[in-house]
Every structure is written in structure tokens, then in C-alpha cells.
Amino acid sequence: MKGTNLGEFEELVLLTIAALVNDAYSVAICDELEKNTGRAAKLGVVHAVLNRLEEKGLVKSKLGE
User: Fold this and answer.
1) Which residue segment(s) compose the domain that 48 sits in?
2) In the structure, what pLDDT confidence band is assigned to residue 2 with cuts at 50, 70 and 90?
3) Which residues does 26 contact at the CB level (< 8 Å), separation at least 6?
4) Number of domains in the chain
5) Is 62 helix (H, G, I), strand (E, B) or coil?
6) What sign does the dihedral 31-20-64-12 (CA atoms) show?
7) What would the DSSP string read from start to end of 14-58?
8) What is the DSSP letter of 4?
9) How would you label 8-42 residue by residue, b for 16+ Cβ within 10 Å and e otherwise?
């Protein structure tokens, strides 16, 4: 597994994914982050974080329909 040190936003995204379970799509992750933190979550930033988490072996992704 590549380095597993996580930044604060990476941790928030990972926790949000765990909370959303099977509904953890990028837009839903953004919405949930904004709702729970009061901070704007930009889709591009969330995508970058998801890519890093996948590189670290912490999440797997698949293309939706």
C-alpha cells in the first residue's frame, strides 16, 4: 500500500464514504461534506482526493451509468 498518511480533507472524504456506503458518488460526497462541515466542497477537489485514496489502496472506484 502506498503511503497511508492522510490529510484532514482526505480523512473527511473517507469518513463520508463510510457514512454513505453504497451511495458514495462524488456529488453525494460533496453534498454530505458541505452539509456536515459547512465548508464548500468542490467536485474537482473531491475527485483528486478520491484518486489519491484509490492510489493508497483505501477505496476502489468504478464508472457509473
Assistant:
1) 8-55
2) low
3) 43, 46, 47, 50
4) 1
5) coil
6) positive
7) HHHHHHHGGG--HHHHHHHHHHHHSS---HHHHHHHHHHHHHTTS
8) -
9) ebbebbbebbeeeeeebebeebbebbeeeeeeebe
Task: Give residue 31's Cα distance to chain centre.
Answer: 11
**Residue 62 is assigned to a structural domain of this protein:** no
Does 12 fall in a domain?
Answer: yes
- Please state the separation of Cα 30 from the chain's center in Å: 8
Instruction: Answer whether residue 65 is part of any domain.
Output: no
The answer to whether the beta carbons of residues 29 and 46 sit under 8 Å apart is yes
The pTM of the full predicted model, rounded to 2 decimals, is 0.85
Taking only the tens place, the pLDDT of each residue in 22-50 is 899 999 999 999 999 998 999 999 999 99
Q: Does a structural domain hold residue 27?
A: yes
